[in-house]
Write a structure and sequence with these properties.
Elements (H helix, E strand, L loop, with lengths): L1 H33 L2 E7 L6 H8 L2 H4 L2 E7 L3 H10 L4 E5 H10 L4 E9 L5 E5 L15 E4 L5 H12 L8 E4 L5 H7 L4 E5 L2 H7 L3 E5 L9 E8 H6 L1 H20 L1 H12 L3 H4 L13 H13 L23
Protein name: NitT/TauT family transport system substrate-binding protein
Family: Belongs to the bacterial solute-binding protein SsuA/TauA family.
Subcellular location: Periplasm
Length: 326
């Protein structure tokens, strides 16, 4: 009986040891097989993010060991609470909202990639030719649609109003998602709307016209948006952050060099028709993340009282892969 019990005990011990080894081995294989880091990323159906979709379509993220899951947010500022809470890992957003969040301590922002820079005709204050506002001066006391309050959309609209002698506080800014702006203009729900592509082209199809270009004069060539995470996420995912940055740099440069790829992609993620996509005015896609370029956004915010005067350390907000740091 003793020898039988000993044999059973030995067999059971061997079974448990080998069983644990098998379980550990299969778990290791699963991790090895996936071999990728999942990134939950907030984005918008705008021309700004075409390189992001280009990178997904061509498998650049997959090749870099990243699985990027996209979810739609209505505005760049809306993604910041989501990265702060961990609901998202990275979010697309406008630079004004990122800088304001950093300055106010809403989130410890770490920018990973530039996304979009405005050129003439890419960021317009639009109206209906038979509407209540025929001139910018007619906007006093009227409603202007912006996608989010206190972001680059509103800030460039305010700058445009001031440039044309209109007090920005004399108008009522109302929030509205970009896809809803063309119809709101046509229906007379607002006197004007601050619109980006591809919705500018859609608004034109409904009869809307340009009242003013929001990226001219003091806001010409303004950096519009980028991609950012929290500093905590970056510190815990240094390799993934670096891989994401490298992939986006490649995709940004490719989209910038071949705008026809952007036109082909737009109907796939913005739900506009291909014929409309061919009419879209496309800005530029910077392939490098540079503090010198973003200082123009800091200056714009300071000039509008949105940021305290004095030096703002924009460089500290930017992530540089370890092999790129000096």
């Amino acid at each position: 009986m003793f020898r039988t019990a000993l044999a059973l005990s030995t067999s059971l011990g061997l079974f448990l040891v080998s069983g644990c080894g098998l379980l550990s081995g299969s778990e290791g294989e699963a991790n090895s097989e996936s071999g990728s880091t999942t990134i939950n990323l907030g984005t918008m159906p705008a021309v700004d993010v075409a390189p992001l979709h280009l990178a997904k379509k061509k498998g650049y993220f997959k090749d870099a060991g990243l699985e990027v899951n996209l979810s739609t947010i209505p505005g760049g500022a809306r993604g910041i609470p989501k990265i702060a809470s961990g609901e998202l890992d990275i979010t697309f957003g406008n630079w004004v909202s990122f800088i304001r969040a950093q300055q106010k301590g809403t989130a410890d922002i770490k920018a990973l990639s530039d996304a979009y820079q405005a050129e003439e005709g890419t960021f317009l204050l639009m109206h209906m030719p038979n509407g209540r506002a025929q001139e910018i001066s007619d906007l006093k006391g009227e409603k202007i649609a912006v996608n989010t309050r206190g972001n680059l959309n509103e800030l460039t609209a305010r700058t445009t109003l001031k440039t044309h002698g209109v007090d920005p506080d004399s108008v009522e800014f109302v929030t509205m998602d970009f896809p809803d702006m063309p119809t709101a203009l046509r229906n007379g729900d607002v006197a004007a709307a601050s619109v980006i592509e591809p919705f500018i082209s859609r608004a034109n199809q409904l009869g809307a016209q340009t009242l003013a270009d929001q990226t001219s004069g003091p806001t010409a060539n303004m950096p519009i948006a980028g991609y950012a995470a929290t500093n905590d996420w970056v510190q815990n995912h240094q390799e993934a952050a670096a891989d994401f940055q490298r992939v986006m740099a490649k995709a940004q440069a490719e989209a910038n060099d071949d705008r026809s790829q952007v036109e082909q992609l737009l109907p796939q993620y913005t739900e506009i028709e291909p014929k409309t996509a061919s009419l879209v005015t496309i800005g530029s896609y910077p392939s490098t993340l540079e503090a010198s370029r973003l200082k123009s956004v800091v200056s714009l915010m300071q000039n509008n009282g949105e940021l305290p005067s004095g030096e703002f350390d924009i460089e500290s907000m930017l992530f540089h892969a370890p092999d790129e740091q000096q």
